[in-house]
Amino acid sequence: MSAKRGIRLAIVAVIALSGIGVAGLYGLRAWRDLTAEKKETIPVAKVIRGDVTLEVTSKGELRGGNPDALTAPSTGGGELHLTQLRENGEEVHKDDIIAAFDTTEQEFRLREATADVAEVEQRLAQATAVRDAQAEEDGYALVKARADVRLAELDVRKNPMLPTITARQNTLALEGAKDRLSQLEKNLANRKATNAAAIAIQGAARAKAESQATTARRNIDNMTLRAHRDGYVSIRQNTNQNMTYFGMTLPTFQLGDTVRPGMAVAEIQDLKDWLVDANISELDRGHITVGQAVNVTVVAVPGRTYSGHVKEMGGTTGSPWDRRFLCRITLDNPSPELRPGMSANLVVTTDQLKGVLSLPAQALFENDGKTFVYVGSPAGFTPRDVKLVRRNEMRVVIEGLAEGQSVALANPTEQAKKKGAAGGPSSALPK
Fold first, then answer.
1. Minimal CA–CA distance to 353: which of 7, 49, 73?
2. Domain boundaries of the chain, sorted by first residue
3. Cα separations in angstroms, 109 against 74, 113, 124, 228, 283
4. Is this structure's pTM higher than 0.85?
5. Lowest mean pLDDT: which of 16-20, 182-186, 233-237, 367-371?
6. pLDDT for 257-310, tens place per residue?
7. Residue range 214-221: average pLDDT?
């Protein structure tokens, strides 16, 4: 029994020692993995010689040519509010209502102006009646004053046969009659001018009230925007909105939105001519010219490629890190299934170079106006200046390297900095 027990104890001891050995082996391997420096692998690419087609690609939006913009009217007031608006892309015909604004204020002004016209007409009729009555009364007074002068003149003719005192009285009576006639004529002229001025004032007031009523009616009519031709509706972006972040797309106008006078709310696009608007990077502006051929594919019309050409290029706008310019392309072979607002992909072939050296675009670096690459060797990567001939989004054409050389697709210096900043597990060990 003691011998068997000894054998068992020996077997247990061997198994225990084996387990300790295996655990120690895995522990040593884990320790080596933790303390060993991890070698970063930097992707590389070869310098190749061949033909390079330089293309500019972009996304755009389809729109009709020569759009007829419908703008909010200038009503002499503040902002307007949309109460009616067609759907974006909806087909309409000439004279169809596209948008309408709240006319409450203008209708109130029209009612006020209409009431003012009626009131002024009453005052004008009253002033005219007063003038006519006064003219009749003044005419009678003038006839009487002239008759008094005539009678006084007849009495003066008798003066040679009358006593001196009576003759003097007749003369004084004639002078008094003439003075009264002269004063009456002056008063009548002044009264006539006063009455005419009063009527003119009322006439001006009526013209003003009628003008206000006409303006209100015209404003009410102008606050309904109608299509001037057949086509499709394109709702414009609401630039009244305050966007918090750069690059956010402005929303289109919606019912109830506030619109400033003169703002374009919608446009009816001419479907005889089709355009594609694209915002292209400023880096490609020097490679694109007016009249250049463009291949256009419309997302909603798969399997078909349209030909076009660059019609015009707009100014460069945008944030300093994303400067872009508007490029407008005319379609040469449109089809009936096209609709405004459809997304399109554009490819502009700017040039084709034969037998040149090229690299992926990410292999070229720039600093202080110099262009360089990191050339690979057994000792590592070495920066080398190269001459940039042309570039596009995918590849760069360069001079200064040999065909077949390897270059880094990432900056080895930046990789080393990141590695040093992060540190490894060994950096935490005591020295």
1. 49
2. 104-222
3. 15, 6, 22, 28, 55
4. no
5. 16-20
6. 888 888 889 988 777 788 899 999 888 888 889 999 999 999 999 989 999 999
7. 90
